[in-house]
Amino acid sequence: MKKVLFITYFWPPSGKASLHWPLKIIKYLPEYDWQPVVLTVDEDTFSAKDESLLKEVRPDLKVYKSKTFEPFNFYKKFIGKKKDDQLVASETISTTNKSITHKISIWIRMNLFIPDARIGWYFSGVKSGKKILREEKIDAIVSIGPPHSVHLIGLSLSKKFRKPFYPVFIDPWVDIVYYKNFKRSQITLVIDNHLEKKVINKSSASVFVTDTMKNNYIRKYPFAKDKSFVLYWGYNEDDFENLEIRPNRDEEIIVHAGNIFDFQDIPAFWARVKKEIDNNRKLKLKFIGTVSPGIKQSIDDAGLTNYAEYVGLLPYRKMLKELINASYLLVCSTEPRHVPGKLFEYLRTGKPIIAFGNDNNEVKQILEDTNAGMMFRYDEDGGKIFECSSQYKTDLSKVKVFDRERIAGELSKIMDEHL
Q1: Which residues touch 219 (CB under 8 Å, ≥6 apart)?
Q2: Whether residue 341 is found in the same domain as residue 365
Q3: Residues in CB range of 180: below 8 A, 6 or more apart
Q4: Do residues 214 and 247 both lie within one domain?
Q5: How far is 130 from 145, CA to CA, in rounded Å?
Q6: The total number of structural domains that make up the chain
Q7: End-to-end CA distance of the chain, in Å?
């Protein structure tokens, strides 16, 4: 059996959503004659913990951990938080926080940490990776980004040991949407673009989780056309086994799962929800994950303070139970290249999906193909979904093509063909 080294910053018990792709792909790869080995950090101090995910790690999987420099520990001190205080992703890049310490920390993050704030793992990661490649006789290397600094570790090891290298892009690199409201210096952008191009150029094949992102990269780097592939974020069919369904009969619950940032605000929709409530419709908003200060303020401004519940991070299975018992599922795509990971779990529940996003034809097409819900622009109120939700009966036969067991098989084919 061939061996592949997965380099991923996030790993259980981290509760970071982006670890679900490698976690499940790794689970299924041995079925396709690939034995994974994992390199990760000794501790992710930024993300909240989800101890339940430890049960998902294969008992026979070798997981190597190495130390990293975490600037977020200094960030906590700088903004006056205690060492054990939990940072909230949507707050760290909030545009509504006008404090001088927040502005300084944002500038440092955007301009001094290239390509990102996890670059402190690079030297330790490379050192540990060298040891693993010598001991484990690795045949290929897969890196998962963001953080995109992980791709630099994979590139370094690939070059030294002449092994095939496959970077996986869950989000874009240089122009990731989180950066759009913040200024990056010209020299920062030059360096970052150089690193991005180098990784794409030296890769054996690059994997993107959306077709729009793949095409965007090919336009930017035409040389990547014949070695660029799409493997969607997907979901895990086995996670939906034996989930208890207890729909709420007293009110209609609109659930949003994951992070929601200031730039994903949908004030017209909040106003429409309030209008429906005023017309005696029993609607309630429920947010699982992190919610930015700007979003909370917008919801309050719409008069929905008493109709919104913020439950924070939940263990993964509990989160799925909330999804499957919801009346509607809300998702906000950030840009045309973004197909939110939660969309695929939403699809599998069969519940009507309310999606917002400007010019995101990929999400719109997925919803139409599966008959799962409606897509609206950010300035629309989304009220039409309340009028015709009964028309949306998700075609689960089309959803199951996104099962990660199948996606693992596709990744194995890419690696087999580009060894």
Answers
A1: none
A2: yes
A3: 263
A4: no
A5: 20
A6: 2
A7: 14
The pLDDT tens digits of the residues spanning 97-133 come to 566 765 666 766 776 778 888 899 999 999 999 999 9
CA distances 276 to 139, 253, 376, 382, Å, are 58, 13, 18, 12
Residue 191 lies in a domain: yes
Which pLDDT belongs to residue 250?
82
Q: How far apart (Å, rounded) are the C-alpha atoms in residues 304 and 297?
A: 10
What are the helix (H) ranges across 137-266? 149-161, 186-202, 211-220
pLDDT of residue 43 exceeding 70, the answer is yes
Give the whole-angstrom CA distance, residue 208 versus residue 166.
10
Is 206's pLDDT higher than 70? yes
Whole-number pLDDT of residue 47: 74
Where does residue 330 rank: exposed (0-12), middle (13-18), buried (19+ CB within 10 A)? buried
Distance, in Å, from the CA atom of 345 to the CA atom of 348, rounded to the nearest integer, reads 5
In this structure, the answer to whether residues 183 and 45 fall within a common structural domain is yes
Residue numbers of the domain that contains 168: 2-70+116-234+403-417
Residue 391, exposed/middle/buried by CB under 10 A (0-12, 13-18, 19+)? Answer: exposed
Distance CA 94, CA 97 (A): 6
Kindly state whether residue 156 falls inside one of the protein's structural domains. yes
Q: Residue 242, Cα to own-chain centre: how many angstroms?
A: 25
- Percent of the chain exceeding pLDDT 70 equals 89
Question: Do strands 140-145 and 353-356 pair parallel, antiparallel, or not at all (unpaired)?
Answer: unpaired
Residue 91 lies in a domain: no
Distance from C-alpha of 142 to C-alpha of 127, rounded to nearest angstrom: 17
CA distance 19 to 132: 21
Task: Copy the structure tokens of residue 144.
Answer: 């998962």
pTM: 0.88
pLDDT of residue 179: 65
Please tell me the distance from the alpha carbon of residue 179 to that of residue 235, in angstroms, as a whole number: 27
The closest of 379, 377, 387 to 352, measured between CA atoms, is: 387
